[in-house]
Amino acid sequence: xxxxxxxxxxxxxxxxxxxxxxxxxxxxxxxxxxxxxxxxxxxxxxxxxxxxxxxxxxxxxxxxxxxxxxxxxxxxxxxxxxxxxxxxxxxxxxxxxxxxxxxxxxxxxxxxxxxxxxxxxxxxxxxxxxxxxxxxxxxxxxxxxxxxxxxxxxxxxxxxxxxxxxxxxxxxxxxxxxxxxxxxxxxxxxxxxxxxxxxxxxxxxxxxxxxxxxxxxxxxxxxxxxxxxxxxxxxxxxxxxxxxxxxxxxxxxxxxxxxxxxxxxxxxxxxxxxxxxxxxxxxxxxxxxxxxxxxxxxxxxxxxxxxxxxxxxxxxxxxxxxxxxxxxxxxxxxxxxxxxxxxxxx
Length: 346
Fold this sequence. Notes:
The protein is an all-beta fold.
């Protein structure tokens, strides 16, 4: 496997041709993530097998709006064992933060979340550091967002003493100093597993969404997932109550992504499987507000004849154009351009 990139305009049409991102080619390159600054420069991060000499390592590369590829950067300082599942956030000026899962603490099969900051030229401004204040927990699935003041929030899933997963977070300033001495417990609902968080910065606030597992009262040992959310003020304090982004169904609602679409609105998308009705995967969207409420009704992004759609991802540009991509049946890739006005009217 290798990492490729393709640019699209605001109407969803491709600009130019796909380009190969990775320079190192002998082994697999996987799990790409991308962030874009206000000038249109993209930062792509991914995991590369055996490039750093031991298992997977984390690498990054800057790509200009004209598709000029800058130097490839090794992100992780610690080389032994597995470094995988990267996440990236880029601010308006092009400074960026990368977070990933690491075996640096060498706790058998346990993993921890680490992070590192870079300036707009791709030069590191910090050494890698451990994100969690409670490294005895198993931590994975990081997501990171950065605001206009270069404060950044990292969220992840961590196991508790009973073996359930919860969502944790920490707020950092650009110097890498944590705001709190203890990890933030993001979810209020603590029954069963809370997994796969995603976070976005919205001016002076941060918004987190994740999968929340629940048990059916009438169906023994049957579990489903909702998408829940929580708004945080810029100081890392919770703002309002936990948001139920989706309605309960007999099935699964998971792999949520989210993006800022206005000063007060966030678009959330997820893959949806209803065992009673459609009996297939679809991609749904819902707008929530930074005031902590659901706005309007959910929509289905995929067309009616695309009856197996999964793994949605969102992106936007500085003019407010929003794009959604997902995978259809037999690996077909679909894309949909959502203009600014339409996005906030969902």
